[in-house]
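Handout, page 2. Input:
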Amino acid sequence: MVEPATYLDRYVSEAIATLEAPYLGTGVQRFLEVLIDARAARGLVFFFGNGASASTASHFVCDIGKAVNQGAGRRIRCLALNDSVTTTTAWANDTEFEDVFSEQLRTLALPGDVAVALSPSGVSPNIRRALRLSRELGLRTVGLGGDDGVQLGELCDVAILVPSSSPEHIEDVHLLINHVLTAFLRDEVPIPGR
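Output:
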């Protein structure tokens, strides 16, 4: 058995490697532009994911909704599709699990809105179905995935694919992206109309 300190050192070294790759700066810049454009257009930004990615989707909405949207002026409107347990389980029970996000988008989304999918593997059928529908409905699409996320990337206008196959490292970076975007929007991008 490896000592906990040794395991921690290895984990941190691997995490640092995922953060030092050049994809991150470009991806964050493009994602930021999508969020700023959505605010200008008064579009709604839909976040969604499964499992731990569902909690990260909710975390994005919490942080943007609270930290970024303080005071007067035009706010970034956002919603986590996975937050309504009743709606999600109703669609899963009455149709199929692949519909849990796409059917909500079919009801709520308008052209010019944004769909942000979080999926370390990039192959979840419900994620892919929601992204395909988002494109049909005229939404901009953003995907946060891992190094196996080629299918996710093909469905997105902006794809940030963490160069790792470790779900933990991928999820670490997704959460870091949330915090960087939130802090930057709060500290560096004035709210229009304020």
